[in-house]
């Protein structure tokens, strides 16, 4: 579903953020991406989302070489990808339902379909009863689950998460990881950038480790 072939990314300032990175992630995989700050994790995710393009090498997503996707087609490409952020980036002046509905409203879905899909997404993350709640009234773990519901409400093929448990205690972090596992079990490809080695080494999924832009084979940091 995601394949990198000798991908390098050099920023204009001359810094090599990724160097000859190659890997394949299959459709129903859940893979962790780790590495110190500055190792290139965000850059790698940005290339998958086409927020940036590689300097050399090939990125293939769902069978499509991304170099063939014109800038005009980027929004269509992004709709296949759900993104979860560490600080969940919720809109605090809107309730849970409206936060989750936002991507569908932007895409122009009709009212009934929005309601059906938002409730299906909230059900998956266990927040169906909180749809009218305002985000400030939720715990950190619940807010993160709203962020996950919003990421999956468009039924993406790929779910990317950047430090999704960064602000959560170990127990809540484990619950969030279980949610990601449940999406991978229904065929969503999941890639999670995380520093939390204690947590991710326990979960027995493949771990990609970046060190100064290079993929390190076999092992953690
Ligand atoms: P990580 O997510 O692992 O912390 P990043 O992908 O953010 O790593 O960064 C990798 C390297 O690329 C770092 O040295 C960072 O300073 C550099 N970098 C990231 N974004 C830019 C940019 N827009 N312009 C120049 N350098 C950048
Ligand atoms: P409904 O048709 O009732 O709205 P959905 O279409 O939301 O139900 O989901 C149908 C099944 O497919 C569920 O079991 C769901 O977990 C799974 N599924 C398919 N794609 C996704 C996705 N991107 N994220 C989460 N679950 C998905």
UniProtKB/TrEMBL annotation:
Biological process, per Gene Ontology: cell division
Topology class, membrane: Peripheral membrane protein
Protein's UniProt keywords contain Cell division: yes
Domain ABC transporter: 2-221
Compartments, record wording: Cell inner membrane; Cell membrane
Alphabetized GO MF terms: ATP binding; ATP hydrolysis activity; transmembrane transporter activity
Name of protein: Cell division ATP-binding protein FtsE
Gene field: ftsE
